[in-house]
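Researcher: Please predict.
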Amino acid sequence: MRRRHLSDRTEVYGIAVKLTKALKRFFVPSFVVTAIYFLKYGCKVSPKAEVDLSKLLVIGKGSQISSFCKIKSTDGPMTIGKNVSVATGCFLSSSTGGVEIGDYCMISPNVTIIGNNYRYDKLDVPMCLQEQTSKGVVIGRDVWIGAGASILDGARIGNGVIITPNSVVSANIPDNAIVQGNPGKVIFKRR
């Protein structure tokens, strides 16, 4: 009997958490989100961006989040360093593994950074019903990510890296490399 009571409380708690997320996303005006992040961190978030109000999101001083960006950080930690520029139309999502972006990074328009993945090893279970995994994403300092690039769960990008437009990165990239392609490969080393 007691076990069932605990299970009911856990279920109610889960519903309350989902309801709180929904209320924050849909009922807090965007100019309030902009003001909160400016006052709390000294960063600029466009009122036309969709940024979660979350204790798990930290944005460094002087960073800018442009219009039509979506930043989802209610499921895991996300740290954006200082003086980072996130251009129009980007999508950043963290999960339990987290997303970490170093200082002085430039993220071009329509870049996707995703810190989670789905298991797909059980052929008798639809992929969308298999559990999620999250290794996280780490992006070093002074990185330039070209327009339309995708940075996937498990990527570790070193300092001073340039990722060319429309590249897909899911592996370790050494410092000062220039990466191109799908999958992203080092084509040159900055000197």
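Model: The mean pLDDT is 90.
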